[in-house]
Amino acid sequence: MSAAGSPGRLRRLAETGREPLSFHFDGVRLHALAGDTVLTGVLLSAGHLRKAEFGPERRAGFCLMGACQDCWIWQEDGPRLRACSTPLREGMRLLSGSPHYWPDPRS
């Protein structure tokens, strides 16, 4: 089970020998491998990346190449990033929604 209470959307089939790393997503410690994007790291453990801003729909990225803006998430210190094209780093602290905006898509 995952941070989101459901199995991960992705399954790792290859490249399992890379260096492990950990990060936090919505306060939950998750694990991935060096070289993974933020999107890959989150979706290995969670069923979705975030909720839509103005509805109950769950989002998990769409184009996977940084063009559609479906994978924007936030760092705990405020800046947002594109999960599909940002390399995951050890110790990153990420949020599915901004604590500074309303409506909060995490609720």
Can you write the helix and strand succession as a string? EEHEEEEE
Helix content: under 10%
Whole-number count of domains: 1
Question: Order of strands across the widest beta sheet?
Answer: 2-1-7-5-6
Describe the biggest sheet?
A: 5 strands, mixed
Low-confidence stretches: none
User: How many angstroms separate the termini?
Assistant: 20 Å
Output the CATH topology.
Ubiquitin-like (UB roll)
- How many individual helices? 1
CATH architecture designation = Roll
Shape: globular
DSSP summary, beta strand count: 7
- The CATH class is Alpha Beta
**In percent terms, what proportion of residues is strand?**
15-25%
CATH superfamily: 2Fe-2S iron-sulphur cluster binding domain, sarcosine oxidase, alpha subunit, N-terminal domain
- The whole-angstrom Rg is 13 Å
Mean pLDDT, rounded to whole units? 83
The secondary structure category is mainly beta
GO molecular function: iron-sulfur cluster binding; oxidoreductase activity
Organism: Paracoccus alkanivorans
Keywords: Oxidoreductase
Protein name: (2Fe-2S)-binding protein
